[in-house]
Amino acid sequence: MSDHSAPPIARVHAAMQAMTDKALQTPDDVVAIAIVDSAGNLLAYTQTGALRLFSRRHAIRKAYTAAVMATDTGTNGQKLKEQGRSISEMGDLQLTGMQGGLVIKKDGVLLGGIGVGGYNGGHLDEALAKIGLDVLMH
What we know:
This protein has about 140 residues and is an alpha+beta fold. The chain has a single domain (about 10-135), classed as Haem-degrading domain (Beta-Lactamase, 2-Layer Sandwich), CATH 3.30.450. Helix content is about 40%, strand content about 20%. The chain has a four-stranded antiparallel sheet with strand order 2-1-4-3, sandwiched between helices. Helix 1 (about 10-25) packs antiparallel against helix 4. The longest helix is centred in the middle third of the chain and has 17 residues, at about 55-70. The mean pLDDT is about 90.
């Protein structure tokens, strides 16, 4: 038996498809999308075109951070900043405080995280991640 949870794989695929379809509506904006389980293990990854290595890695880091911190990355990063702290103090080089990672929870159970990277602004990354989250929750 596993010590972590994950969203059903069929829902993961549906969420990835919904986010990819939305991202492809603006083909000049290339993004990376990642979904991880509650332990931060990668379940799905895609990108909509050629993308810098940083953006590809950052999508995965955002998903990972949302899952292991059990909170959205933008919220967590802002909270730490208000406390005068840095994400680097957490001791995990995979963590990020950048907006664009959303936690996946259902009925109070942590299932994982979604991360998007590549848009010019974390609020756009988060908006695309919310589309996937909506699919996962229904």
